[in-house]
Amino acid sequence: MARAANRPRRRREAKSRDPRGPNLGRSAPGADDLQETHVTSESILIFGAGGYGRCVADTARLAGFEVAAFVDIAAREPMFGAPVLSEAEVFASSDLPRAGVVALGDNALRERTVEAIRKQWPDFRFVTVVHPRACVADSAVIEEGGVVLAGAVINPAAVLGAHASIYTNAIVEHDAVLDAYVTLAPGAVTAGTTRIGRRSFVGLNACISHGVTVGDDVVIGAASAVIKPLAALSVAVGAPARVVRERKVGERYL
C-alpha cells in the first residue's frame, strides 16, 4: 500500500547506549568507602600468619570483621596491629573469641588444623570471609570457613564446600560443585557443572572444561587446561592436561 502523501515519514532517533553501562565515569569505591558499608564488626581468630593469612586478614577487615589475633606455630611480632600467638597460648586462653577462619594455603594442613580446633574447642564457629569486591550470586552456597578473595566470581547455583579457598580473580561458574578444602589459585576457572573433589588444588590460571569431574587430592598445574576427568591423587599439567604422576594422601604441594 502506498504511503499517504500528507503523512510525514516518522524519523527514529537512535539513542546511543554505552556498553559499559550507567556507571561510566564513576570511580570505583575506595577502601574507605568499603569500610563505611560495614558498621558492626565481630572479633575473630585467623589461624595462619603467612602470606595467605595476611590476604585473609585484609579481606576479613573489609568484610566487617575485627582480627583479635593470628595463630601460628610460634608467637612473634604483631601483624596489622593484632598479636601473633602460638597454638598453645590460644588453646589455653579463655578470653579469646571462639570464632574465626583457617588461613593456611595447603589443603591437607588446613583440614588437619580445622580438626585440631574442633577437638580443643567443640563450640568454635568457623566464619565465611568474602571480599566486598567479589561477585557472589544469590543462589550460590558458601559453606563454613570458606574464603573468597577480591575479584573472584561465584556464579548461580555454584557450591563451595567447607573451608574452600577461592583466590583473587578466580571464577566458579554456574552449578559447579567444589568439595571441602578445595583451593582455586589466582585466575583459575572452573566451567559450569564441574565437580572438584576434596582437598584438590587448581593452579594459577588453570581452567577446567564444562562438566568435567576432578577426583579427591588432585593437583592441577599452572595454566593447565583440563578437558577430561582426572582420577583421585593425580598430578596433571599442560594444555591439554595430562597426568604425570600420582600423589600420596596429604603430600605437600606448596
TrEMBL record:
<dbReference type="InterPro" id="IPR001451">
    <property type="entry name" value="Hexapep"/>
</dbReference>
<protein>
    <submittedName>
        <fullName>Transferase</fullName>
    </submittedName>
</protein>
<feature type="domain" description="PglD N-terminal">
    <location>
        <begin position="44"/>
        <end position="116"/>
    </location>
</feature>
<dbReference type="Pfam" id="PF17836">
    <property type="entry name" value="PglD_N"/>
</dbReference>
<feature type="active site" description="Proton acceptor">
    <location>
        <position position="174"/>
    </location>
</feature>
<dbReference type="GO" id="GO:0016740">
    <property type="term" value="F:transferase activity"/>
</dbReference>
<keyword id="KW-0808">Transferase</keyword>
<dbReference type="InterPro" id="IPR050179">
    <property type="entry name" value="Trans_hexapeptide_repeat"/>
</dbReference>
<dbReference type="InterPro" id="IPR041561">
    <property type="entry name" value="PglD_N"/>
</dbReference>
<dbReference type="InterPro" id="IPR011004">
    <property type="entry name" value="Trimer_LpxA-like_sf"/>
</dbReference>
<dbReference type="InterPro" id="IPR020019">
    <property type="entry name" value="AcTrfase_PglD-like"/>
</dbReference>
<comment type="similarity">
    <text>Belongs to the transferase hexapeptide repeat family.</text>
</comment>
<feature type="region of interest" description="Disordered">
    <location>
        <begin position="1"/>
        <end position="33"/>
    </location>
</feature>
<feature type="compositionally biased region" description="Basic residues">
    <location>
        <begin position="1"/>
        <end position="14"/>
    </location>
</feature>
<feature type="site" description="Increases basicity of active site His">
    <location>
        <position position="175"/>
    </location>
</feature>
<feature type="binding site">
    <location>
        <position position="105"/>
    </location>
    <ligand>
        <name>substrate</name>
    </ligand>
</feature>
<dbReference type="Pfam" id="PF14602">
    <property type="entry name" value="Hexapep_2"/>
</dbReference>
